[in-house]
Predict the structure.
Amino acid sequence: MNVEVEGVTNSEESEGEQKLIQLVTFSIGEEEFGVNILQVQEIIRTMEITNIPRAPEFIEGVINLRGKVIPIVDMRSRFGLESKEHDKNTRMIVIENETLIVGFVVDSVAEVLRIPASSVQPPPPTVAGLDSNYIDGVGKLDDRLLILLDLDSLFDNEDLKAISGT
């Protein structure tokens, strides 16, 4: 799988001796998040979502993406934020990790960034009201902080059963 977003391919690179991490950044509420570009399959505009009866609250439903049925997680609901109508900036980020392919609904996708690994600090016990179990680290950029999500820890075993069972 080779993801290409705005001409940036999915590799971690070293510039001189400085290791760089490539991230796709997005917003949920007032916070800015990042995920490793290697886990991003694609970024799409919102499309029709089919509701699933008795699914957990954070599962918005499923979509048919080129013949694959993909569960869609509302990240606002997952993080306990107030729901928001989808608008022209709303995007779905299709993520692939070791156990599943899932789409995340986010308020907007910002950019692909390369940041020095040295700018990432371990997470404090809570960041933006999120349990630090979900967080790989906090990236310190010039004028802002970027919360790096640990996608493998975002869902517990019950959540994974619910998502994969849809």
